């Protein structure tokens, strides 16, 4: 999965000999992009003009130059310079990598005449994210596609290319885990993977089994897992680079390795892709795998409730009342609103670590996907400054976030139960908001908290940009950029 290397090159483009070259082009500014190619500019521009290629956004054109020093040149459009965003460079790099992958080239070069440090990072990310494929279980690989080994960014910034590689590899790692089927990943195997990752990355790791969870009073997590033959696990990974870290952060991930809906069983069309209900957990594992490579001087705790929600005679039931880790009671309205029940215990546990802030990531509600569509995640927070920081970072990473409200008092009343402290479901309307309001009940007062609902963006049925079909790995790069910002300059 990570065989592809992205490197810096100081090659002179007018003398370069290569199997393949990609050139990123602003719309209507072909000459500016091709000037550095010397003798190849004329024949490339001639073919582009014949085919009416002018650099429109996300359009690519392959120029074949048999016998020349660069036999394949791919022109990839960025769109109008006045409208181009940083993420357009990731997309363009991904398009080039995917197009070149269809040829037999193993070594690629990529050129943009106005390269900078941030662009170097974005382009490196795009190359790696665009080349990702999950074909682990295919006995026959796609014909006509070779494995690209190296991509060289001409004139790029070495440190930022390396940073982009680290962040993209973290996202691809999360994608790989999320794509794994439920007969391979269950709570026990996910805990084993986390333990192996901790060993490889020199992280502290503690896995709590069902007996320990019962002794701790993790009744909500245990309740969700009661119907499965695979018992739940609490995974706790810790990254602490310095003995006196100034910043302590808790990350909480939803780790539903499969969600059938429990006794409120899902319809068959809604049960497909529920292997992806562990995406929040996979995002955190991608983050923790990358953190040691960034050498941040902060303390980060990653907490994952790994559980499988299945129907059986031992399943938890509608009307059950469960006492969570922090002592609050939950009346079960719907067993398919299991993620928030699981996370109630994990957020309570995270609060007990007394972090300065908590960020949770969860495929929590279909309602969020209905509200925002499949390309934007919902963002909720009790701290506007925290929220603003995440929104600003998301504009840099291209992982779209949109803030949704938590201040609707009437909507909050729908979570009130006559028999317990809170209901686990408040119905369809405002479902993403009431789910976030439920989570807020289990965050200790005084702790800054933000919640990312990634239910709409965790899995794509059709590829686009630098996203393949399947798991997206959404959130890894945004969280890593946020953690980097916490450390300060």
Walk me through what this model shows.
The model has no long low-confidence stretch (mean pLDDT 95). Helix 4 runs parallel beside helix 5 and helix 11 packs parallel to helix 15. The two termini are 32 Å apart. The chain is 36% helix and 21% strand. The protein has 16 helices and 19 strands. The protein is α/β, with parallel strands linked by helices and 489 residues long. The chain has an 8-stranded mixed beta sheet, with helices on both faces. Strands 1-6-5-2-4-3 form a 6-stranded mixed beta sheet, with helices on both faces.
Assembly type of the chains comes to single chain
Helix content: 25-40%
The radius of gyration is: 24 Å
Distance between the termini: 32 Å
Biggest sheet character: 8 strands, mixed
Strand order in the largest sheet: 7-8-10-9-13-17-14-15
Give the integer mean of the pLDDT values. 95
Total number of beta strands: 19
How many distinct helices?
16
Approximately what portion of the residues adopt beta-strand conformation?
15-25%
Sheet/helix structural class: alpha/beta
Low-confidence runs of at least 5 consecutive residues: none
Tell me, what's the shape?
A: elongated
Summarize this structure briefly.
Helix content is 36%, strand content 21%. By secondary structure, it is α/β, with parallel strands linked by helices. The radius of gyration is 24 Å and the shape is elongated.
């Amino acid at each position: 999965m990570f065989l592809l290397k992205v490197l810096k090159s100081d090659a002179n483009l007018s003398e370069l000999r290569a199997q393949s070259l990609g050139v990123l082009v602003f719309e209507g500014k072909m000459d500016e992009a091709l000037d550095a190619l010397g003798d190849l500019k004329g024949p490339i521009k001639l073919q582009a003009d014949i085919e009416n290629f002018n650099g429109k956004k996300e359009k690519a054109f392959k120029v074949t130059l048999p016998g020349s020093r660069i036999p394949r040149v791919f022109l990839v459009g960025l769109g109008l310079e006045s409208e181009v965003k940083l993420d357009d460079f990731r997309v363009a790099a991904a398009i080039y990598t995917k197009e070149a992958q269809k040829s037999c080239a193993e070594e690629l070069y990529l050129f943009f005449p106005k390269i900078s440090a941030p662009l170097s990072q974005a382009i490196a990310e795009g190359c790696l994210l665009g080349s990702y494929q999950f074909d682990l279980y295919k006995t026959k690989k796609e014909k006509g596609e070779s494995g690209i080994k190296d991509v060289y960014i001409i004139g790029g910034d070495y440190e930022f290319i390396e940073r982009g590689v680290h962040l993209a590899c973290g996202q691809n790692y999360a994608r790989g885990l999320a794509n794994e089927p439920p007969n391979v990943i269950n709570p026990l195997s996910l805990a084993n993977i986390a333990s192996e990752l901790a060993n490889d990355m020199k992280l502290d790791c503690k896995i709590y089994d069902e007996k320990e969870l019962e002794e701790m009073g993790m009744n909500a997590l245990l309740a969700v897992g009661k119907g499965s033959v695979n018992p739940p696990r609490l995974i706790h990974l810790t990254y602490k680079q310095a003995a006196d870290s100034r910043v302590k952060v808790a990350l909480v991930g939803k780790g539903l390795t499969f969600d059938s809906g429990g006794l409120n069983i899902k319809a068959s069309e809604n049960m497909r892709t529920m292997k992806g209900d562990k995406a929040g957990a996979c995002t955190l594992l991608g983050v923790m795998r990358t953190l040691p490579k960034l050498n941040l001087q902060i303390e980060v705790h990653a907490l994952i409730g790994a559980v499988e929600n299945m129907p059986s005679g031992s399943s938890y039931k509608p009307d059950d009342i469960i006492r969570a880790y922090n002592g609050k009671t939950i009346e079960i309205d719907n067993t398919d609103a299991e993620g928030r029940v699981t996370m109630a215990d994990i957020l309570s546990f995270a609060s007990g670590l007394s972090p300065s802030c908590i960020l949770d990531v969860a495929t929590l509600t279909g309602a969020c996907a209905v509200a925002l569509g499949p390309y934007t995640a919902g963002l909720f927070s009790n701290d506007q400054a925290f929220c603003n920081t995440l929104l600003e970072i998301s504009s840099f990473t291209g992982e779209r976030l949109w803030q949704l409200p938590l201040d609707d008092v009437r909507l909050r009343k729908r979570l009130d139960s006559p028999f317990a402290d809170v209901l686990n479901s408040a119905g369809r309307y405002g479902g993403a908001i009431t789910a976030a309001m439920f989570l807020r009940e289990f965050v200790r007062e005084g702790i800054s908290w933000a919640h990312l609902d990634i239910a709409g963006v965790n899995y794509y049925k059709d590829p686009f940009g630098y996203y393949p079909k399947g798991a997206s790995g959404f959130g890894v790069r945004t969280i890593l950029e946020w953690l980097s910002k916490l450390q300060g300059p």
